[in-house]
Specification:
This protein is α+β, with helices and mostly antiparallel strands. It contains 10 helices and 20 strands. The strands form 5 sheets. Strands 11, 14, 15, 16, 17, 18, 19 and 20 form an 8-stranded mixed sheet that branches. The protein has a 4-stranded antiparallel sheet with strand order 1-8-6-3, with no helix packed on it. It has a 4-stranded antiparallel sheet with strand order 5-4-2-7, with no helix packed on it. It is extended and about 90 Å long.
Length: 410
């Protein structure tokens, strides 16, 4: 019996996927539930498992766009399993061969040298040749003024290399098709820039109080809960508080209407193997420090391992992006449509600040809020960011209710 494997629907509203990579070769023996391909949708990369054991025949190539429901391969379930099939070493070698990048190298085309008027024409003198070698120039780039067109030392001294003249290093190029996910991200980012009245406001945060809390309680917290006490829980809970104070930031535009949310689904931008992923922490307003840290860790691991689903990246109401983990000092993050605001975190650097009328050294982070000015006014945007700053600089009172151990569930 020959089984036709069709493309399953990765999620609502998705009608087409792209074959990102075949994990098996045509004619291979596959086991039921074995991952045979990676497919890209415009929201995520998913693995395609074999529906039965047998010999596989591929019906689509890598990079092909196929509609949901189309046949992508056949599995002959009556075929006998060949000897040595399932050898993990062979499978690994095949996978590595599939993953090897193909580079297009610019081919050099030989041109027939023009006929010289005489033996000396275009030939540099020994002194001129030394100068040209130091400049990295070929004699054919210089017009000789000497007898019979010979290149003199003066010609070489006055010669200027062309800005378009290639150097002596390698000039290989690589052409790689963008994944469907990356193309969708690009499309959404351009749309966000073109279709929103995006503006960014900035502030700075003295992180000293958070540093002191983490230094004192991080070991107890990790021992008790099995996760670290990071910065994301402080920022997430500070954002939840600020969204309560400024609900317009937790809203979106739908045509001529404004839609306000009474829940806080916080999207967190993380870097995965396929590019930027934005999984969502649902109902962050109901989570404690432990709850936020556990959810951040779970979603980050799933994104890293390529297991994140479309549903886990859909429906956020506000986004937090942490460019500081890569060393970013300051940036203007782009709104994640249809949301109306995104908070950018950056690296923490010791800076001189004024505290109680005196100069002090403190760990300072610059923060940025990009927002859609069509729906959020300057008062709300600046007030929101100031509320975030206040909570981060006074977390014991504003985020923990003056009971640190209770807030951290120690």
């Amino acid at each position: 019996m020959v089984l036709e494997m069709k493309v399953p629907s990765p999620g609502e509203s998705i009608t087409e996927v792209e074959i990102a990579q075949w994990l098996v070769a045509d004619g291979d023996w596959v086991e039921k539930d074995q991952a045979i391909a990676e497919v890209d949708s415009d929201k995520a990369t998913l693995e395609l498992p074999a529906e039965a054991s047998g010999i596989i025949t591929l019906k689509a190539d890598e990079g092909d766009a196929v509609a949901v429901g189309d046949v992508v391969c056949l599995i002959d379930t009556d075929a006998k399993k060949p000897e040595g099939a399932g050898d993990s070493k062979k499978e690994e070698e095949a996978k590595e061969a599939k993953e090897a990048p193909v580079k297009e190298t610019k081919k050099e085309t030989s041109k027939e040298a023009p006929k010289k008027e005489s033996y000396a024409s275009g030939t540099p003198s020994p002194a001129a040749k030394k100068i040209l070698d130091e400049k990295g120039m070929a004699p054919k780039e210089v017009k000789g003024s000497g007898r019979d067109g010979r290149i003199t030392k003066n010609d070489a001294d006055n010669a200027t290399p062309s800005m378009g003249t290639p150097g002596s290093g390698g000039r290989g190029t690589e052409r790689k098709k963008l994944s469907m996910l990356r193309r969708k991200v690009a499309e959404r980012l351009v749309a966000a820039k073109n279709q929103t009245a995006m503006l960014t406001t900035f502030n700075e945060v003295d992180m000293s109080p958070i540093f002191e809390l983490r230094n004192e309680y991080k070991e107890q917290f990790k021992e008790k809960h099995g996760v670290g006490l990071g910065f994301m829980s402080f920022f997430t809970l500070a954002v939840v508080r600020a969204l309560d104070l400024y609900p317009d930031v937790n809203s979106m535009i739908d045509g001529d209407f404004q839609i306000r949310h009474d829940f806080k689904d916080i999207s967190i931008a993380v870097s995965g193997p396929k590019g930027l992923m934005v999984p969502v922490i649902r109902n962050a307003e109901n989570l404690t420090f432990r709850g936020v840290e556990a959810e951040v860790k779970r979603l980050a691991l799933r994104a890293r391992d390529g297991q994140i689903t479309v549903d886990e990246m859909t429906g956020g109401t506000f986004t937090i992006s942490n460019g500081g983990v890569f060393g970013s000092m300051l940036s203007t993050p782009i709104i994640n449509p249809p949301q109306s605001g995104i908070l950018g975190m950056h690296n923490i650097v010791e800076r001189a600040i004024v505290r109680d009328g005196a100069i002090a050294i403190a760990p300072v982070m610059f923060v940025a809020l990009s927002y859609d000015h069509r729906i959020i006014d300057g008062r709300e945007s600046v007030g929101f960011l100031v509320a975030v700053k206040e909570a981060l600089e006074n977390p014991t009172e504003l985020l923990m209710g003056n009971d640190i151990k209770k807030a951290l569930e120690l």
